[in-house]
Amino acid sequence: MRFIAIAILVLLLQPALASSAEVSVEHAMSAYSSGSLNKAIAELEEFVRLHPADKKGLYYLGYAYYKKGNMEKAREAFKSAYLIDPDYSPALPEKVVIPPVEPEKPTATPQEPKSPEQSPAQPKQAEKH
């Protein structure tokens, strides 16, 4: 009897285990790249449901929602990814830290003194004959 209960449990869990193994950010982004935004969003939602602390999955879910035009859900996903790691960017390896860039200070360029030809027109003196 115990064997039958375990066998039934394994059979019931098998589809869930198979689907979680197939769901990956890379697979979802493949769908995204091929133009299947709805499929990408569905796969990313499932991935994030299974891995709620995965910043990469959350970030790409936000981006997919953004491309779909759902700004509210995009904002939620981006915020969740940011709360996990404020410095995360999928374009960079996770260990790279970019130092802040100081804004350039404007430098005054010295101006050349104007030559007489460049100075504003001055009244010409009448020539004496």
Per DSSP E runs of 2 or more residues, the count of β-strands stands at 0
The number of helical elements comes to 5
Quick check: average pLDDT?
74
- The fraction of residues assigned to DSSP E strands is under 5%
Under CATH at level 1, the class of the domain at 23-91 stands as Mainly Alpha
Shape: elongated
List unreliable stretches of 5+ residues.
Answer: 9-21
Give the structural class.
Answer: mainly alpha
CATH topology group of the domain at 23-91: Serine Threonine Protein Phosphatase 5, Tetratricopeptide repeat
Helix proportion range: 55-70%
End-to-end distance, in Å?
133 Å
The CATH superfamily of the domain at 23-91 is: Tetratricopeptide repeat domain
What can be said about the biggest beta sheet? none
The CATH architecture name of the domain at 23-91 reads Alpha Horseshoe
Quaternary organisation: single chain
Notes on the structure:
It is a single chain. By secondary structure, the chain is mainly α. The chain has a domain at 23-91: Tetratricopeptide repeat domain (Serine Threonine Protein Phosphatase 5, Tetratricopeptide repeat), CATH 1.25.40. It is 56% helix and 0% strand. The chain is built from 5 helices and no strands. It has helices spanning 2-22, 25-33, 37-50, 55-68, 71-84. Helix 3 (37-50) packs antiparallel against helix 4.
